[in-house]
Amino acid sequence: MRLYRSFFILFSVVFAFTSCGTDHENDINNGGGKTSEVNENRNVLAIGRPAEVTRLEFPKLKGGTSEVIVHSTSAYGMTYALEWDHAKRSQRWSCYEITSANNKKGWNRKQWNNTKWGSDPFQVDPKIPANEQSPVRGEFSGSHYPGYPNSYFDRGHICASEDRIYAKEANEQTFYMSNMQPQVHVFNAGIWQKMEACIQNNANRGEVVYVCKGGTIDKDSQILTHTKSGFIVPRYFFMAVLMKDEKGYHAFGFWVEHLYENHSSDRLSQYVVNIDELERLTGIDFFCNLPDELEHKVEHESAQEVRSYFRSWGIN
């Protein structure tokens, strides 16, 4: 009897686990055409990992001293997630999705002026030890770009504030210091903002747009400098964008050097790379939760094919 009962419980658990599909699995199945569902390099659930790591916007997790932090609201679910490296005291990336449900305006950044904050609500992330995060004030602005002592760094959003204006609570979460990287002002308010606007202005062209953004923190050659208290300043920044529409899945990347120069008038096409190249540059495996066959197809579209497909986005 004990043996029978143990077998029954084990069967029930396995059946329940394998029966639980997700909206993202349905997205893949409805993407058009037949695609093998084999996935050898997807993120797997494990103790200490949030369930969200299987979503399509997530890259392959680094592991080691890194941890995935998820911020969410009760009304809308996940606002964004980030990978925090406790040893490096830095975030590696932030990821999130843009859908018709959250691509709307329910809050304006200027409205923070009329709250207790009096302005933008920059604050430490309550889910990460405060001593691992940059001080809210004075750290970035008190540090300068190499060779330019009169310059300073902004608290540069990775998940953009403007990408999360559907609710006050969600917008506030984008101001956590864990979602910031030091960015010299002319870069933050210039080419980086132009890339952000490209995604914001065109996200409604797809059913879902999956975004993963960050700065380079892992290779010494890709670190520009450190702030006065030793926080990493990335030499390069990137965006990986996956769109699902009626034709299936397509993706592109932005790769841009963190320069103390105004490049806001540059054509975005000169910063476009395919995902395969972006992975080579960053060492990050993007969109790993796609079935392997589909992931390979999406990532290996040439830069020319990518520019052509996303022509309406203005990146050609």
From TrEMBL:
Domain DNA/RNA non-specific endonuclease/pyrophosphatase/phosphodiesterase: from-to ranges: 76-293
SUPFAM superfamilies: His-Me finger endonucleases
Name of this chain's protein: DNA/RNA non-specific endonuclease
Keywords: Endonuclease, Hydrolase, Metal-binding, Nuclease
Ligand binding (Mg(2+)): 188
InterPro entries: DNA/RNA_non-sp_Endonuclease_sf (IPR044929), Endo_G_ENPP1-like_dom (IPR001604), ENPP1-3/EXOG-like_nuc-like (IPR020821), His-Me_finger_sf (IPR044925), Non-specific_endonuclease (IPR040255)
Record's keyword annotation contains Kinase: no
Active site: 157 (proton acceptor)
Matches recorded under PANTHER family: ENDONUCLEASE G, MITOCHONDRIAL, ENDONUCLEASE RELATED
Keyword DNA repair: no
Pfam hit, one: Endonuclease_NS
Domain ENPP1-3/EXOG-like endonuclease/phosphodiesterase: residue ranges: 77-293
Gene Ontology terms for molecular function: endonuclease activity; hydrolase activity; metal ion binding; nucleic acid binding
Recorded superkingdom: Bacteria
